[in-house]
Amino acid sequence: MKIDIGISEQDRNEIAQGLSRLLADTYTLYLKTHNYHWNVTGPMFNTLHLMFETQYTELALAVDLVAERIRALGHVAPGTYGAYAKLSSIKENEGIPKATDMIRELVEGQEAVVRTARSIFPAAERASDEATADLLTQRIQLHEKTAWMLRSLLED
Asked: Does the global pTM surpass 0.70?
């Protein structure tokens, strides 16, 4: 059935492509955060274990929101590791880094998600897609705050 929500097919396609990159970044960061939750060690174990759990739980909810927005725009949401590997700006790493390196990598991941979300704004604004703009604003606020909290752990 034809979609008639006041956003052209071309604009919906461009926005959905951007949201697919956001979904891939979010899922990749989710996986990395969950991995670090399981494998963190050292004197900050309890703090980081609990913090990472809070963060990966939020990311798990976020992927659903982003994927559902892609679907509402009439597109298929990517949902495989292969698709995410091609779309994500966040790279996986081999091995288990030390706790402080985990924190640094998660800061970089949070910031990457922010950059990806920001990159979608021009298309959403041109199309007057307030729903996507609202989603992006919420994601940016949360990831900037999380990056700040993680960076704070690295201060002397």
From this structure: yes
